[in-house]
DNA sequence: CATAGTAATGTAATCGATTACAAAATAAAT
DNA sequence: ATTTATTTTGTAATCGATTACATTACTATG
C-alpha cells in the first residue's frame, strides 16, 4: 500500500499538497488537485489512519461495552448507537466483556492509549470504581445501567416506575399473590425494580412475602426455569409473576408448561425488555419495553458531545407496558 | 497523559531506554529499570498504541464482520474467536454490517488503513468481489459462510451432509412428505442444504415437490411463521419440515401452535443451528448443531496464522444432529 | 514596469513510539 | 596499566500523516 510520500512524488508535488487534497482544506488549484487525484487513483492509495490519528490524537472509534452479545436486549440499543455514531463519522467497537475484569482492562487501556475516543458502558458488572477513575480524563457514558453517584452521565429508564406499572397491571387484572423473579440485587436496576414491586403491593395493601421473591444469579433462560421450579414448590403458590427480564420470564413459562400450567389462567407472567423472542413464546409474553433504539441514539449523542467537550446531562427515557397473552384471559 | 519523553526525562534516561523497559527487550541494568519503572508509576504513564502501532505497522486488532448481532447463531462463534484472539494478544472488533454495503466499506477501509490487521467475515451477504480484492493484500478468513472459488480460506461445516442427515432422520421416523423451509438460495449454504435435502429424498425414492419448498427472504421468526402459513394452506400438507435455521423453525412451530397443530404428531420439525432458545420452545426443537465455539477458535487461529504470513488451508468441521421433542413421539 | 497583495505550494516540525547503530561504561584478560 | 570484550545507554532515523510558517508564482494596480 502506497503512502503519502509516493503519491506526492508521482503527482510531482509535496506531501503537504497531497494532504490538502485529502482534507480538501485550503485552496489547491484545480490543475494540481487533478494531478494529485490521479496519482491517488493510480497508486490505489488510502491514507493511513494510524498516521492521521497519531497526528490528530483522535481515533474516531467509540467503545461499546456489553457483558455478552447473547443477550438480545442489547441489539436495538447497539443499532441506535451505531447509526448515530456513523452519522457523526465515528465507528463503534463492540466489546464483549463476559463480565471478566481482565477483558475490561484491555478495553479501558484502549481508551487510555488513545485507540478509542470514548466509551459507552452497558455492563452492569463493570468495575464502577475503575470506570469513574477513567472518566476523570476520558469521555464515558453509562447506558441502561448506571451509578447512583451520578458522577458519570447516563441514559436509562425509571426502573422503579416501570416495575411499579408492571405489577400494578398484574393487580388490576385480579392478582393478589404476586411473586418477583429478580436478578442479583447487587445491581442497581434490580434494587430499583424490587422497590417498584414493593410500592405497588403496598399501595393495594397486598402482602409482601419473602418466599415470593426469588433472586437469580444470571439472566439465562435456565435461571428462569429454576426460579419457577422453586416457586411451584411453595405451599402457597403465587398467582402471578413479575420477572425482571424476558429471558427469566420465558424460562418461567417453559417450566410452567412442563408442569402442565397455563398462563395467564394458572399463573400470569410479565417480563421485562420486550426482546424479539417474547413475541414467539406460547403464550406470548406481556413485558415492559424500553425505548432501546432511542436509548442507543441518546447515549451516542451524549458521548460524542462529551468528546467535543460539551457538558452532558443524564437522561431518563419513558418505558411502555406491552400487554400480550401471558396476562390476557 | 504523559508520553515516553516525559518518562525518560523524569527517570533521567533516554527514550530508547524507556522503550526497552516497556518491551523488556534487550538488557537494561536492574538499577535503571527500577528508575524507569518508578517514573512510569509516578506519571501514571500508559504507552500510546497509536505511536506504537504506527511504528510497528500493526494494530493487533481483528475485525469480525457479522450481518446482525441479533442472530444468536453468532454468539458462541464470537466467543471462540475472542478467546483465541486474546490468547494471542489480539483484540477483536465486532462489526455489524446490517448487510449494508456502505457500512461494509467503512470496515474494509479500516483494514486498508492499517487500523486492523485482518478480517473474519461471517456475513453471507458480503460483497465477495470486494472481499477477494481485499484479500490480495490483507489477511481474511471466511467463517461459516464461504465462497466456492476457494480463493479465501474458510472454516465451515459440510452443509450438504448436515441437511442430508437432518432429512434422513425425518424419513427414518416415518415421514414421507417432507417440506423444506429454505432461505434465499443466493446463499451458498442454502443451495448446499437444499442439495442435501434432495439427496436424502432421492435415496429413499420420495417425491420432490416444489410446493413443499419455501424460500424466505430473511431469517427472522416472522419468516418462519409466514412459511408455515403457506405450507398449511396446501391441499396436500407435508408431514415434516426441515428448516435451514432455528429461527425459521421456531416461527414455524409458533404458527403450528396458532393453528392448533402439535409437533411431532401433526408435523415433525427440524431446525438448524442449535441456538439457545431452541431448547426453550414447546416442544423443544430438534436441530443440527454446528461446533460453533470450535469454529470461532479455528477461524481466529487461521487468521492469526495468515497475518503471520503462514499458509492457511480451508477446513470443514463436523456437525451433530440433536434430537429433541419436535421429532420425538 | 515596479510593487503590493493574494493565491498556491513547499519546508520542516510534530504526534509517540521502536530500533539500528554509535558511543560510553564496565568487566575481563594480558 | 593497557587492551579487548561485553554490557548498558544514547542518538537519531523512521513509521505516515497534518499544519504553521516560509516561499514562490501569479494578478492587479498605479
From TrEMBL, chains A, B:
The keyword NAD does not apply. Keywords: DNA-binding, Transcription, Transcription regulation. InterPro entries: Cro/C1-type_HTH, HTH_LacI, Lambda_DNA-bd_dom_sf, Peripla_BP/Lac1_sug-bd_dom, Peripla_BP_I. Residues 5-50 form the HTH cro/C1-type domain. It holds the Pfam family Peripla_BP_1. This is LacI family transcriptional regulator. Transmembrane segments: none annotated. One of its GO terms (molecular function) is transcription cis-regulatory region binding. Residues 2-56 form the HTH lacI-type domain. It comes from Robertmurraya siralis.
